[in-house]
Specification:
It contains eleven helices and 56 strands. By secondary structure, the chain is an alpha+beta fold. The strands form 13 sheets. Strands 3, 5, 8, 10, 11, 16, 18, 22, 27 and 29 form a ten-stranded mixed sheet that branches. This is DUF5060 domain-containing protein.
Length: about 1050
């Protein structure tokens, strides 16, 4: 008789058949019957759940959850290192070109040609689900028809058939996948064998999935010898065959970099968890039934197998869910343990092939459970791990890990060391050749020589090229212009290299033009004097060893300035907006105070296709913008560049201005960030050479904004590139950061160039960073350098994460810094009012009022929603979740900030809405919200409300907690504003006031004139009722009480 086969287990859990050798001739017979006793390959990923995204999912064949019906034929694993010993198998290994170096094959293979005997139920199975059945677990959130494709290797006519099914069923549309093309190679196909076409008809292999959630996809044998590498399913009926050749899944070996986020690194204190034994997040059943923890994903974007490491417990089966940016990755119920708590793979859950974007907000949530109704589990978990699921992600993860490992050496660099973060010059030559002659040293003064208008002094100076290294025209030449008024007032304004002086239109890279911009604040005679010096780092360090250049230094002249001839919204009619040690900014010309309302999104505003040198770093996620919805808003006479470019963005600025808004924001540097499409350099990685034409084109847009009454919110960097901390991760190495967060050559030059080119604009702020993670010392260094370089003393602010406000802002209060305001962010619009009150009061108590703006109110997913009706918006986001409408935003964000004593708002657009923060090209998506902004501003401006002298006084209307029931702003004894978000009426405590106050009502929804309600006047000396509104008593109203 034949000896039984003894299975052996390899390190990757594959079980294969091996023949024992016996001293008997009967052993030869074993070749024909080996499979009877073979044990098939075990499930490679029994717990993996593969997640569909945007109607697409791709899976490695070997990553199945289970295999059944293996008594006669089974799928066996072949890798580059090992192969099954099952015979017969007439094919050599094809692992070298298989995805990840591994694939499955149905063995034994006894029918290789048409001449070999066909045996139903042995080497051929026309019925699906009868032999060698693989099962994969998938999570589908987009129901629909999915077309199934398989990557197979066929060497003959009898190894090219397979069946596919779903949830234990085998529909006709999944039977008889057939391959005739692509022989002797790995080849993708999706064809069904039919009576009419034995080689298969395209478009007929599909599965209909009617409900979202977890499903099981099955594959079963049709012909033995079938070699199976990958499969995918897509809702795209016109999906094109992927290219032939090697697939890109990384080989799973010891070098694959697994990235991890320990539970204790998540933000958990306010989410219901506590830290258990220094390593687990857990829920105290006496306090909470569920909890959630959040963490910004700090690793490179890509596809990962995400593993949640839960902790088994013996008093209940806790449930867990994982999401990224509010989109479900998956969920599971943890098995029971046989002790109080236990760790191990049996308590882990892997969600396979998940696309995650750097910067996404991860959330792990869990719920406790009880097995006996008395004792409860604590839903403990220890870690999330991320295993790259393709070669591109594996490479990015390996680079990340390498850079992270090097951070210790990097962070010890001196602050003025140019290698603190790498910079890669476009050219390796000292100078670009051929050279042209230097300029003759002549100077031109151009522009409208009027008070507050842009006046430009241009020097015909030394020839330079953007790519020059020695000397570097940006770093090693210092051009400044001193402007002195006949009264004695003077300004020292930094200048810059301007190529041919018309680069916005010519895209010039070289030339002899050097210039400085000035916005004079006095009429009469001004004298200018050009200072020009050269030397290493001369531009960024006035103490550097530099020599004046006689041919260009000391050029002087005069010009006369007349009064401005502008009016209306044009800021040149109002003058420079200044911080004046109050909670609101003031125009230097008119003395009026300013309330801000406008757009915080898109942060990638400058990622515009019609700017020179602008490239999409993430073209699939964040393509360059065209602003086509606003082309019709461009007006004849408006600026353009290069024969008509720029109309879309100029039109967008026109639109926002026409709605009565007065602000928009933008990042000027986001390399390595969410958008990765905005930088001022000639090339993304060259941080010491600036793009003259691109920056001139930016300048056209900014100047147009100033002329149309638009405050410019310069966000100088973002959390992903402000330092080496990589967002909220404590350690890392970010090559895109400037000097690793320090104030070195890269950062100094960047700040100087931005200030020199754009600082003449009248209304702006320098925001050190969006969601900053830099240290206090690094913030102070930036603030001090900006103050040194900016001749106009523009408003300086800081933005950080919602949970980091105390940590980042407290050290900068009062005389500890020259910060003049904060740019706040929160996670819920309902928190806007009380947080505005908090920081207004803290700054005032510290002896230096801050201008408190709310520039990102609401969660990252939501923020400011579109108008009801815009593209069908009904209050639900893209996932179908009911969120809120523009009316709640008007009440809680807009009026919440104004009535808290704040300086204004900008609206962030959450990524779960159309026209979001990264992709917005149509500001009309919030058209009604812009109207609400105008209405609110008009209330204060048109009715002479002295808001700059008023402070929050919610306690006067019985709202000591500063919730959203009603707000009060007061100039004690003289004027009071009450806002009623939900309508109705209220009393107000005027005990400390005397005299009579008139009571006027203002419609906060549509604006208009002040109206009378049921009470016309009230008297001070006690608590009084303000009466009922003129109409619509259940809607929001503002009430003005004044003498």
């Amino acid at each position: 008789m034949v000896a039984p086969i003894t299975p052996s287990r390899s390190p990757n859990t594959m079980q294969v058949c091996r023949l024992r050798k016996f001293l008997t001739l009967q052993t030869v017979f074993a070749l024909a019957v080996t499979a009877t006793w073979c044990v098939s390959v075990a499930a490679q990923k029994p717990d993996a759940v593969f997640t569909e995204a945007n109607g697409f999912l791709k899976v490695e064949a070997e990553d199945f959850a289970s295999q059944t019906n293996t008594d006669k034929r089974a799928f066996y694993l072949t890798t580059a290192e090992s192969a099954p010993s099952v015979q017969p198998d007439g094919d050599p290994s094809h692992a070298s070109d298989a995805s990840g170096g591994a694939y499955l094959e149905i063995l034994p293979d006894t029918r290789r040609t048409h001449a070999d005997k066909l045996i139903h139920g042995t080497n051929f199975s026309p019925q699906p689900g009868k032999m060698a059945v693989l099962t994969y677990r998938v999570n589908v959130q987009t129901p629909g028809r999915y077309y199934v494709w398989v990557r197979a290797y066929s060497t003959g006519s009898e190894d090219n058939g397979l069946h596919v099914g779903i949830d234990g069923t085998w529909p006709e549309s999944g039977q008889r996948l057939q391959w005739c093309q692509g022989k002797h190679s790995w080849y993708w196909d999706s064809k069904q064998r039919t009576e009419a076409q034995h080689c298969g008809e395209p478009g007929k292999i599909f599965l209909d999935i009617h409900e979202p959630g977890e499903h099981k996809i099955h594959f079963s044998m049709r012909e033995d010898g079938f070699e199976f590498d990958q499969w995918l399913m897509t809702t795209d009926s016109s999906f094109q065959r992927p290219p032939a050749g090697k697939s890109n899944k990384p080989k799973e070996n010891a070098t694959t970099q697994v990235l991890s986020l320990p539970a204790k690194e998540f933000e958990f204190k306010s989410g219901g968890y506590y830290l258990d034994q220094g390593k687990w997040l857990a829920i105290n059943p006496d306090r909470n039934q569920s909890a959630a923890a959040k963490k910004v994903f700090p690793f490179p974007s890509g596809r990962y197998d995400v593993t949640l490491k839960a902790v088994g417990e013996n008093d209940g089966q806790s449930t867990y869910s994982v999401s990224a940016d509010k989109e479900s990755i998956g969920s599971f119920t943890c098995p029971m343990a046989d002790q109080t708590f236990a760790e191990g793979k049996q308590f882990h859950q892997t969600f396979a092939n998940v696309q995650i974007t750097e910067g996404a907000e991860l959330e792990v949530a869990s719920k406790i459970a009880s097995a006996d109704g008395a004792e409860y589990s604590r839903a403990r978990w220890s870690e999330l791990t991320f295993t790259p699921a393709n070669e591109a992600t594996a490479k990015a993860a390996a680079n990340f890990a390498k850079e992270n490992h090097l951070v210790a050496a990097k962070t010890s660099a001196e602050s003025n060391d140019r290698t603190g973060s790498p910079t890669k010059p476009v050219s390796d030559q000292p100078l670009q050749m051929p050279r042209e002659k230097d300029g003759d040293g002549s100077v031109q003064v151009t522009g409208e020589k009027r008070m507050w208008h842009k006046v430009t002094v241009t020097l015909n100076g030394p020839y330079a090229h953007e790519q020059d290294n020695t000397p570097n025209p940006y770093l090693d030449h210092r051009m400044e212009v001193e402007f002195k008024h006949e009264s004695g007032k003077q300004y020292l304004v930094p200048g810059y290299f301007a190529a041919d002086g018309n680069a916005a239109n010519t895209s010039a890279e070289s030339g002899t033009q050097w210039r400085a911009h000035f916005a004079p604040d006095e009429t009469g005679e001004w004298t200018y004097t050009v200072h020009f010096a050269t030397g290493k780092d001369a531009a960024i360090d006035r103490d550097a060893s530099a020599k004046t250049v006689a041919a260009f230094n000391g050029k002087t002249g005069t010009f006369n300035v007349a009064k401005t001839n502008k009016s209306g919204r044009d800021f040149r009619a109002h003058g420079r907006l200044r911080y004046v040690n109050q909670s609101h900014l003031q125009f230097a010309g008119t003395g009026q105070y300013f309330l801000k309302a406008g757009a915080d999104a898109p942060e990638t505003l400058l990622g515009y296709a019609e700017f020179d040198g602008t490239v999409a770093g993430k073209p699939g996620k964040v393509p360059l913008k065209k602003y086509e919805p606003h082309l019709g808003d461009w007006r004849r006479g408006d600026p353009t560049w290069k024969d008509g470019q720029g109309k879309g963005l100029i039109g967008a600025v026109n639109y926002l201005s026409s709605k009565g808004c007065n602000a928009f924001s933008f990042l000027t540097y986001n390399a390595g960030g969410d958008g990765d499409n905005v930088w001022p350099f000639i090339q993304r990685d060259d941080k010491l050479h600036y793009d003259c034409s691109k920056l001139d084109q930016w300048g056209i847009v900014f100047d147009h904004g100033t002329e149309n009454g638009m405050y410019l919110h310069f966000k100088l960097q973002e959390t992903e590139n402000d330092d080496h901390r990589q967002g909220q991760k404590a350690k890392g190495f970010k090559p895109e950061s400037l000097d690793g967060g320090k104030l070195g050559s890269q950062r100094k030059l960047y700040l100087r160039e931005i200030i020199a080119r754009f600082g003449h604009n009248l209304a702006l702020n320098w925001n050190l960073a969006e969601e900053t993670t830099q240290t206090t010392d690094e913030h102070l260094a930036m603030l001090n350098y900006i103050e040194e370089m900016d001749p106009y003393g523009h408003h300086r602010v800081l933005h950080t994460y919602p949970g980091e406000q105390d940590k980042k802002y407290d050290p900068l209060l009062g005389d500890k810094s020259n910060l003049t305001g904060v740019s706040l962010q929160n996670s819920h619009i309902k928190d806007t009012h009380w947080q505005t009150v908090k920081w207004s009061e803290k700054a005032r108590e510290a002896g230096k009022p801050w201008v408190v703006a709310f520039d990102e109110s609401g969660s990252a997913a939501h923020g400011q929603c579109p108008d009801l009706g815009y593209r069908g918006y009904d209050g639900r986001d893209k996932t179908g979740k009911m969120t809120y409408t523009q009316h709640e935003v008007r009440k809680q964000t807009l009026w919440g900030n104004f009535m808290g004593g704040g300086g204004g708002v900008e609206y962030y657009f959450g990524y779960q809405y159309d026209e979001n923060d990264l992709g917005c090209e149509d500001w009309r998506s919030r058209d009604q919200s812009w109207d609400a902004c105008r209405v609110a501003i008009e209330f204060f401006q048109n009715n002479a409300v002295p808001f700059w002298e008023m402070v929050n006084a919610d306690e006067l209307v019985g709202n000591e907690k500063h919730d959203n029931s009603k707000y009060c702003l007061a100039k004690a004894g003289e004027a009071y504003v009450v806002y009623l978000p939900n309508g109705g009426t209220t009393s107000i405590d005027l005990s400390d006031a005397d005299g009579e106050f008139q009571v006027h009502w203002y419609n906060a929804r549509i604006g208009g004139d002040l109206q009378s309600g049921s009470v016309k006047t009230v008297s001070g000396g006690g608590s009084v009722e303000i009466g009922q509104p003129p109409a619509d008593a259940d809607q929001d109203w503002a009430v003005l009480l004044r003498k």
